[in-house]
Design goal:
mainly alpha
């Protein structure tokens, strides 16, 4: 198992709890939409996956997840078959798909970030979301300047798995979920819990500066 980067510790991630509990922070409309829609997208992904037509699942999840992003989905038809097969493996397996399969998905979507979102909504217990804000907090300069490298995303997953396996993680996860619930309650959003990988990724996003209004 890979070693967690020196700058990424549970103590550092705990600082995000204080940020989430800050009542004066104003979230952008985009961030509020993310918070409102996240559990609905998880539920929709489960419904789509239950039909398990892998070709349709790739297109449906792509359209849905890219509606959650400030980008437009661009599915490369030449890579759909391999990407659909990779998505089917991700759905059926309790272990990570291999790097080549992740690359098949990234080739289809023209994006490793988009790939991470598809995989997350399909298997939120296994795959975190990867974006530039998280990478800035998390990783080396190579990761921040090469968001298109599947290897960087996979290293990030392994680092999160190392954190989750640590003795103090359960306490962090509980405290973070409680703080997250308090934020949702303040915003009049029905509280929901985050998976361990989502909690770590969400904490890193907060530490990166989050998505706040400057007004």
């Amino acid at each position: 198992m890979t070693q967690t980067p020196p700058g990424i510790t549970l103590e550092k991630l705990r600082r995000a709890i204080r940020l989430i509990d800050e009542p004066l922070i104003e979230l952008t409309p985009q961030s509020l939409t993310y918070l409102h829609s996240y559990p609905a997208l998880l539920a929709a992904s489960r419904t789509l996956a239950s039909s398990h037509n892998s070709g349709d699942l790739l297109l449906q999840l792509s359209a849905m997840c890219y509606g959650w992003m400030p980008r437009v989905a661009r599915v490369n038809a030449r890579h759909v078959d391999k990407a659909s097969a990779a998505l089917a493996c991700a759905l059926e397996s309790d272990v990570l798909i291999d790097t080549a399969q992740m690359q098949d998905l990234a080739n289809s979507l023209h994006s490793v970030v988009g790939t991470s979102k598809l995989l997350h909504f399909l298997r939120p217990q296994l795959y975190p979301i990867w974006d530039s804000k998280v990478a800035r907090v998390w990783a080396t300069s190579d990761a921040t300047t090469n968001m298109s490298k599947v290897e960087n995303y996979r290293s990030y997953i392994e680092d999160i798995r190392t954190l989750i396996a640590s003795a103090d993680f359960a306490a962090f996860h509980e405290d973070f979920n409680q703080a997250y619930g308090r934020r949702l309650d303040r915003l009049k959003i029905a509280p929901y819990s985050l998976s361990p990988v989502r909690a770590v990724e969400a904490a890193a996003f907060e530490l990166s500066g989050g998505d706040y209004d400057d007004d």
